[in-house]
Amino acid sequence: MFARVKDVAALVGRIGIAVVFFAHGLQKWNNGVDATAAMFENMGLPLPTVAALFTIAVEILGSIAFVLGIAMPLVGIGYAIVGVGAIFAVHLDNGLTGQGGYELVLVLALAGLAVGFNGGRFSLDHVLFARKRESTGAERLSAQTA
Fold first, then answer.
1. Are 101 and 107 in contact (CB under 8 A)?
2. What does the DSSP 8-state code read for residue 99?
3. What would the 3-class secondary structure string for 18-35 be?
4. Burial of 96 by CB count in 10 Å (0-12 exposed, 13-18 middle, 19+ buried)?
5. Helical H runs in the chain?
6. Which sign, positive or negative, has the C-alpha torsion 62, 63, 65, 66?
7. pLDDT at residue number 3
8. What is the pLDDT of residue 128?
9. Are 75 and 25 contacting, i.e. CB atoms less than 8 angstroms apart?
10. pLDDT for the residue numbered 9
11. Which long-range contacts (CB under 8 A, 24 or more apart) does 3-11 make?
12. Which pLDDT tens digit goes with each residue over 17-64?
């Protein structure tokens, strides 16, 4: 029973985190890659076009994958990279709390990373890869007992 609650909580967490990142990615996409790259360049980010493409891909495509539960560790790492970049490029000078602070960005980045590695059984990653892990583990166990 507790495992099912844990899996539902992971799913709800994945959806919530993905919705926020998706909304930010959609804003960047609607503004255009060039405008996003120009904004990143004004912030002093290196390779602003690459950074804009990476950020938009993580925030839009990664969020879709996160809700579906596919490639969750990679998306979680992507969320962490985007979040840390936003903290250093935009929010750090404003402090942790208050107007423009980095508290929300930090929590989203770390929550995405944590949930990315603990996404629960209601995910495509679990459906596609759990049987393989279970059979590999069973093979190792029978080899150890033989």
1. no
2. T
3. HHHHHHHHHHHHHHCHHH
4. exposed
5. 2-31, 33-42, 48-56, 63-68, 72-86, 103-116, 124-145
6. positive
7. 83
8. 86
9. no
10. 94
11. 3/121, 6/120, 7/120, 7/121, 7/122, 8/120, 8/122, 9/120, 10/115, 10/118, 10/119, 10/120, 10/122, 10/123, 11/69, 11/119, 11/120, 11/122, 11/123
12. 999 999 999 999 999 999 999 999 999 999 999 999 999 999 999 999
Task: Compute the distance between CA of residue 73 and CA of residue 66 in angstroms, rounded to an integer.
Answer: 9
| 37 Cβ contact list (under 8 Å, min separation 6) | 48, 49, 51, 52
pTM of the model: 0.85
Question: Rounded to whole angstroms, how far apart are CA atoms 77 and 95?
Answer: 24
What pLDDT score was predicted for residue 70? 95
Question: Which tokens go with 28?
Answer: 């960047």
Q: Which residue has the higher pLDDT, 142 or 20?
A: 20
What is the C-alpha to C-alpha distance for residues 95 and 113, in angstroms, rounded to an integer?
Answer: 22
Which amino acid belongs to residue 145?
A: T
Both tokens of 133, joined, read 């892990």
For 68-113, how does the pLDDT look when each residue is reduced to its tens digit (9 = 90+)? 999 999 999 999 999 999 999 999 999 999 899 999 999 999 999 9
